[in-house]
Specification:
Radius of gyration: 33 Å
Distance between the termini: 61 Å
Number of domains: 1
Strand order of the largest sheet: 1-2
Structural class: mainly alpha
Number of helices: 7
Strand content: 5-15%
Helix content: over 70%
């Protein structure tokens, strides 16, 4: 101070402070970049897991829709055969036995459960996050419950079961052996339709078959709409992964 060097020291001190601050800011920025990169990496991994689950679910839905359509076609044929009083045959029995078949879809949701544990906010795209959440928490949950018809009068299996119990019987004169990969061979008797003339004139049966046809068509429509939603979400996820 005696040599009038105060100004130099102040400038030096200010310069040192500025350098320290700049260094801290740079370090913070680098840290933020690293954190952002980790978050993006995590988000990408979540997208890949969600896509994997949804692709499997999509394939399952497509397979079930295909099976439903086969039964729709065969039930329609059975209704025509009964209406036209077609003579008994093994094909009539098979159409009747298959008419009550139903197919359960079990959506794969492990990736979404993992996302919920991490936090839905990990998905940065607001629109896609809402679509994913609605799909898993509403559409697929309803699909897993067989569209809410499992325990209602719309249940196709329950509708036709009383008639199958009424008209199907075991023909003990025709035993058949069945082989299974992981169990012993079993012997069962062939099922046939009894009281066939009554079967052909049972109007309640015909009404129930027609109702099951209607209900199955509604189920297929619902499954097809959910399938489109699944495909749209998969497309959205693929776009985010590319970006």
């Amino acid at each position: 101070m005696s040599e009038n060097k105060t100004g130099k020291y102040l400038k030096y001190a200010i310069g040192e402070i500025i350098l320290v601050v700049i260094g801290i800011l740079i370090a913070l920025q680098i840290n933020n970049w690293n954190e952002d990169r980790k978050v993006k990496k995590l988000e990408t991994q979540i997208y890949k897991e969600l896509k994997s689950d949804l692709v499997q679910t999509k394939n399952d839905i497509e397979k079930v829709i295909s099976e439903h359509k086969k039964i729709l076609k065969s039930t329609q044929q059975l209704i025509f055969d009964i209406s036209n009083k077609k003579s008994y045959s093994d094909s009539i029995y098979r159409l009747f036995a298959d008419a009550g078949d139903d197919f359960k879809i079990i959506p794969k949701t492990s990736a979404f459960e993992n996302l919920k544990n991490i936090g839905l906010s990990t998905i940065s795209n607001d629109t896609l996050r809402i679509s994913i959440s609605n799909l898993f928490q509403l559409d697929l949950k309803r699909l897993g419950d067989e569209l809410g018809v499992q325990n209602t009068s719309f249940n196709i299996t329950q509708q036709l079961y009383p008639y199958q119990m009424k008209y199907l019987f075991l023909d003990t004169n025709e035993p058949t052996n069945y082989n299974f990969k992981h169990s012993d061979t079993i012997k069962v008797y062939k099922l046939k339709i009894k009281n066939y003339d009554t079967f052909l004139t049972d109007n309640n049966l015909l009404k129930t078959l027609q109702l099951s046809l209607w209900n199955r068509s509604l189920v297929v429509n619902e499954e097809a709409e959910i399938l489109e939603t699944v495909k749209n979400v998969i497309d959205g996820i693929e776009n985010e992964i590319k970006q």
